[in-house]
Design brief:
homotrimer, 675 residues, alpha/beta, TIM Barrel, Rossmann fold, 3 domains, eleven-stranded mixed β-sheet, 17 helices, 30% helix, hydrolase (chains A, B, C)
């Protein structure tokens, strides 16, 4: 299914006029005109208004909002509004409230806490979605449907226990198969009745917290079940919408979000969308990773940036404002990586409750002469000028990064070796290295077709599913380069260890054997020396976990220099077929990861044109023979670099000539339409 | 109502002879004689003795204690003993036990944990108070009534939910008004029935903890409700006492205590009293702030220091003993700031349970030849010598500090900007500056009459109630100086943002406009340069939150030097009427606060006589034309300063002559009766 | 009762073939042959297999395992398998699941969490133990019985409340006696009915956590009750075994484990055994303390090392592998201190669940050519060569260390002074000093016969029971040296303070009086100068708690140099009878403890032969006139020392000659059979 049909990159975002007197709406639309805002996300938290009690629906508020938007020439992304239940619903049907990891049944409050195992929730959320779809399906303003909001979390109630058992029966069919998968002979856990199975929380298999479980199999399956169980609720509403409308349906996701395996959701989304609220201190490249992950959900189809703050967040401990130029820079970054929209949360500062200090386009005084509004208006003009030319364009990547929720979960709920590794942290480190090197890349699931890639980076791929080992071998066999690391290929789909030398099914590709893995507290390291013929040696550090490697056929690229395994390999490269398999045996510091990744890219001639300029981001989008080269300067100084291509910078109108230097200002963006 | 009638500053404190054989009592009274102890607080935890079951009262123990006290010539402050319920009561009526923030109903244990919504608790606590009042109302030893003990905490049980709904109906009358106050259109929270409302805890609106709520309005009102609900229980008992006695009634409070808004309690107390257990590491001035806050409850009427430890506490992680001289110094500090008593917890070390290592006048060996006892006896002699001359005297303050529980709660439960600000920490910093500068000051509620003050300091006054903005303007208009800060004047009484430029209703007085407020983690600062014509520039640092200020009419007194708002104002002064309104736009380090506060005081000629000597405390009490100047040396070295007045040091008997130096020893105290 | 009858030091450990196809068993036994493994611990977690439902027992799996073991010439230590209940049992009888400190009833999961107050658990665990004993009592492979596994933890359910009340009635007989013991007049806690008493947890007497209680008496008694209540379950099973077998019975303990007072268990064990999993960063000597504590349970009878990991643990945050030689070194350390076995957990890496990365003799690939296996096989050969010669041998100690769970609990649940002291930490420090000094020592309960010791070290003996004070005096009176410290002798058996000068009943022996004890945060210290005539002064630091000491008859050995008690004694020595009583008035840094301990040992000529070589461990075992001197090198360099005795190193076969140097390699071990 194509993306929503829009005349240009839609610009705008969450709009909640139901919280205001209608007199305020006039001021809103006057401001929207100033800022070229053409799309409004409406109704995300309106259930209490659209259904004031079980027997009454009142769509008049939505009607007024959507009609006014239409009259003012705006498009609407229309929400079903089910992300927060109304008070009457929780009071009447307490089972819609979740039971938390501590086993506590909650009562009414906050948002995003409905239990999707509750038949009452499913029935009522579907019904309200159906009413809204029925009423607004043909409305000319509506261009897309928005279900729920930032789905997530887990529930551990009795209803979930029952649904979990059904899910398990479907997965395992017999208890014998389940007992085998979970290795229940260990610690006398052999189940003899499905009803003996309870959700894994602090009252059952867990100790200390959600990552400390006595039975990894139970906990891993509960994460999978939870993903599917919440997805079912999304699908309920989507089915209801489909009774009346064929417009594209999405929900706003959170990209690098641990609790939901978005790869299981991908087939059910018409298009992907997400909310980009980077944590302070995380690298700029992490946002790029988020964009690529979202783009990877639908085989490279563009996605929507559904939310970002124009200025500041509110729920963090500290909520800095975005510095001048940064909102524009990050908006263009989203487009550079495949977004076909730039949307904000939200249009006007809330008056009260928990987001009253969350940034918005209009502040509490409603001013349009603030720095925030001026920057929004400037970007609006810029996007209007760019028009529709890059809508639907694709990223021509030859590098793939494997991202895998099963490995994330399995790695982090595992007892043993080191609790400090952290899947996300390691993925961000490997992606950062690729990003700094300017690799044009996709982030894909392990089931993706790898035949189009010259480099496949699969770090910390702890759990191997299906035929991924064979397909990675195939990448190398035909001349590609595969990179994997310590803690990879340790367990099968059931989280049981491979009964073979580490790294299990990747042993042939990597050409090594590991008999023991050491681990140390985070402040204790082992210096690693990296070397290639004809290059100076480089010293970096290993940390957390340390495979003691015996090379079988691989060559040694880096060695430990300390402890009883001093002199043994820390990084190896194995010639395999026409290509190679690299292995990094420890958690290298970022400079070590950079070194390895650049050697891998260089092997395939895939270093980007600006790989030597730190924090100068580059990527590419193509469509119908047109090529757009994005250059984004995340540095605080001006950059001059020679252009690898000739064309026109769409933002400044200036010509860019191959071989001649062009300038990118601090927080500046250049988008070259290549000639 | 006047304070209890005592012949001099009453000296003594908590006395629990019911824990001992009567033979020990003889030793107690012999020691009391040595230490000139003349007042005993009796019966604070005696409910299990006075009422061994629901149908039996046994006042014989109290009788023996009070009769013996009287026979020995001591006064008694008599407690109703309801601060800890007896085991039989909790077993028989489990609803008297509280439900905590986690939603857990407690069972019997500890103390201070009765739910004051429980009709059983209210009935039984009132009944035992009535019995005691009836029996001892006319007893010649009894001079005051002491209800409960260190009231506090919160309960979240079903009974509280019901009481909360009643309280809300009284406050808001209609659900529409409540929905508007709480801004419930946000996140689909519109209530359609009062019974849908539940207490705000971790099972409903909260996440992470008591300061993290999705609906500030609910949580803020729950704090107000809780204050009133506990107060009602105090009032129950007071009413019962009043049936038999007109003697003054108090309860021992905790001064800077977050959970109860003592300003709501003040009208119901005959006189204020509090327990002074400073935390190690807190500044000495924080005790002075506590004293002034308590004195401010009853319009400047003296209060009682109901408890302090002679030596050490027990419940802290580390419990240092008070160094030699410190107990005396801090006792005189209490008097200097308006205490008309010096009382200890307790007379004799407990034999067992949680306070067995809490300091007491007599240790486990019952010795009177210890350092602790000797210091107690010396102070007793000193107080006896001073007699009644300063009883009832007042503090002639021209500086007021606004202290406001609503702002405390609202600021700290708010999402957004910075979680690190901390109301108490900021209030302590501004008060510390005033204290070091020797300002004679009152700490008052926002509803207080401000017409007598030349300087009003209102830092972090986040929530504005009533006509406070107008009354602050009035202070300046008639020539006074008002000082306020970042995070002030942000929300109205319902915790909804003012829909105007920051600082809202204080915009006219401060002459500035703020469009955006930046925030940073605590270890990131912005250097601020402060300057006044004819003075050297001073560099300090801003932290946590940073208003980006546009001066409208104000002059710039300090500027930021870093980040994108370098060069913009960090401190401003606005001429207003005959006076001025100062604004501090960030959390300045202490030296910056000191600089601003001293300039504010200097503007009104209110710097104290010893403002240049750090930690040399000065304040004043006056009565009937007599004036007492207190000078307290919290330094470890001797101080010599010129006397601004002539008179006699009541403690040494030495003459003090204006213009001539006098000496204050380390931990020393000088109390000059001015001639 | 003697230890299990074995032909030599049994070698092997936990074997769980029930988790594997029988084809794997062949490989197991082939490996056992290579490693000289002759004893297998079988059945520790087999309940779900041996009893698949309430009415069915199936011992066929155990049968096959034990028969195969026997056929292969191995001995079996046979477990009853009750340490983890099967799922059907928890589902059928939810009362077998524990209620935690937070008051939460758990459901099925993890292990070690049966409530031993549950009649269902007691009935069913006893029944399965009886069945197993009945079936295998005469089996020729079985040499010992193993009940449960690492007993521990606490439960707070209603059944435990009822059992606690019964236990209290037996202890106190009358409520008056209980009220007196718990000092319930404090805080109105006087109980008038046994049923008013509830377990002390976060819902009743506790705040902040398990060490923060309002009533120490209740919490202390709950620890004692819990020890007895879990012990009863052990005894249930032992009684069932005794119906069929007279073989020795044990359970694997955890040595320095806070939750169970093993001294109360000791009479019920036929022999002691424990699992040695040292925490990274703890000193090597802590393992020696564990061994000595276990040996002390049965009056010096050797114990079994029931578990240790051959390589790494799994449940820690970081799980380093044991460095080369370390597994052997620590195995010999166990023997040196009285172990008559060397056993591992486990034979083969688990395939899945929480211990899949826990080290084992065979890794997931089942290899015997790994470093881990090679070291295991080398040690097996060494042990085989040593044979039976030192089985049953004893440690000829003249130094006793008092270890006391009552003091551990009482000290750490007490409010007051400092929460940072830590009983275990202090005991480890005093033992470390003795260990470095090479003292041959016993670790004994306060009820032990002290008549054979020349030095008794009793640090932090907070609670004094029985006649221990008199018996310590007797040690000194007859010429011995007693060493005690701050925080000792503070409370009686009920945790009520002694109503006398500190250190209470030890005042005469120590010759001092303490009126006040200061305390400071851990980073604040007081420099202490230690001096003896003819020796240079030594400077160390006191920390945490600081008794202000007045010597009555004692001499001053060390003094504080700071704060108001500068110059007063920090360490004293009192001549008493023919001997002396030393007192250390603060928590000295390790070098200070070392200094004191060495002076105490020197007073009795008990410094070891290698006291000057750090980390060169020495101890002795004797039997039937044979003497074995163990020298273990925990350093990373080779050591050469003069031999104090002549004989033969059993491991190398080399002669050792008195007065001549011998060599101990890094991680090396020398076991001299003295001629």
């Amino acid at each position: 299914m194509p993306l929503p049909s829009t005349p240009r990159i839609p610009y705008g975002g969450d709009y909640n006029p139901e919280q205001w007197e209608e007199a305020v709406w006039d001021a809103d639309f006057a401001a929207f005109d100033l800022a070229r805002i053409d799309l409004l996300t409406v109704g995300v938290f309106t259930w209490a208004l659209t259904q004031p009690d079980e027997d009454t629906y009142d769509l008049s508020v939505l009607e007024r909002i959507i009609d006014r938007a239409h009259a003012e020439g705006r498009m609407v992304c229309l929400a079903t509004g089910t992300a927060a239940v109304p008070p009457w619903l929780a009071a009447k049907y307490p089972d819609v409230c979740r039971t938390d990891f501590e086993g506590r049944r909650h009562v009414y409050g906050v948002r995003h806490n409905a239990c999707t195992s509750s038949a009452n929730f499913r029935r009522l959320s579907t019904a309200v979605a159906r009413r809204i779809a029925e009423r607004f399906a043909g409305h000319p303003a509506v261009v897309a449907w928005h279900i729920g909001n930032e789905y997530g979390g887990l529930c551990y109630c009795e209803l979930c226990a029952a649904e979990f058992r059904i899910w398990l029966r479907e997965r395992y069919v017999t208890l014998d198969r389940l007992n085998d998968a979970w290795n229940t002979t260990f610690w006398s856990h052999r189940y003899t009745d499905w009803d003996q199975i309870v959700p894994p929380n602090i009252l059952s298999e867990h100790w200390r917290g959600p990552n400390h479980t006595a039975f990894q199999g139970v906990t891993l399956d509960y994460h999978r079940f939870n993903t599917d169980n919440i997805l079912r609720s999304f699908q309920d509403e989507k089915d209801a919408i489909r009774e009346f409308s064929d417009l594209p349906v999405t929900t706003n996701m959170m990209a690098i979000y641990r609790h939901l395996d978005y790869h299981r959701w991908a087939p059910h989304l018409d298009f992907a969308s997400w909310d980009n609220y980077p944590t302070d201190g995380s690298p700029v490249s992490r946002m790029a990773l988020g964009h690529a992950l979202m783009r990877g959900l639908k085989d490279g189809q563009p996605f929507w940036l559904m939310e970002q703050t124009p200025t500041m967040t509110a729920t963090r401990d500290f909520n800095p404002v975005k510095r001048p130029g940064v909102m524009r820079l990050w908006s263009w970054q989203a487009i550079a990586h495949g977004s076909d929209s730039v949307l904000f949360f939200q249009m006007r500062h809330s008056r009260g409750a928990s987001e009253k200090y969350h940034g918005a386009i209009l502040n509490h005084a409603g001013r349009t002469d603030t720095r925030a509004f001026r920057e929004v208006a400037q970007l609006g003009a810029e996007l209007e000028a760019v028009g529709d030319r890059m809508l639907g364009s694709r990223t021509p990547a030859r590098v793939a990064v494997l991202f895998d929720w099963d490995s994330w979960w399995a790695l982090e709920i595992t007892d043993g070796h080191s609790r400090a590794v952290g899947y996300e942290k390691q993925m961000v480190a490997y992606h950062e290295a690729l990003w700094q090197a300017g690799a044009v890349l996709d982030v894909v699931p392990v089931g993706a077709d790898l035949s189009g890639y010259d480099v496949v980076v699969a770090p910390f791929l702890h759990l191997l599913r299906g035929d991924i080992a064979a397909r990675l071998e195939e990448v190398a066999r035909r001349g590609g380069t595969v990179l994997t690391t310590v803690m990879s290929a340790r367990v099968d789909e059931d989280d049981n260890a491979f009964l073979m030398d580490v790294p299990g099914p990747l042993g042939a590709l990597t050409g090594i054997r590991v008999d023991e893995t050491d681990s140390l507290p985070p402040d204790q390291t082992n210096t690693v020396v990296l070397s290639r013929v004809g290059e100076p040696e480089v010293r970096t550090r290993g940390r957390h976990v340390f495979d003691v490697v015996q090379t079988q056929r691989a060559e040694t690229v880096g060695v430990y220099t300390e402890d009883f395994y001093a002199g043994t390999p820390a990084v190896t490269r194995n010639a395999f077929g026409e290509g190679s398999g690299w292995y990094v045996a420890t958690c290298l510091d970022q400079d070590g990861v950079d070194w390895v990744v650049r050697h891998v890219l260089a092997e395939q001639n895939l270093l980007g044109p600006f790989a030597d300029v730190r924090d100068l981001e580059h990527t590419t989008r193509v469509i119908d023979g047109r090529r757009y080269e994005f250059v984004l300067n995340h540095r605080s100084d001006q950059v001059r670099v020679p252009a690898p291509w000739s064309g026109t910078d769409l933002l400044s109108g200036r010509a860019v000539v191959a071989g001649e230097e062009f300038v990118v200002e601090p927080t500046g963006v250049v988008v070259v339409e290549v000639r």
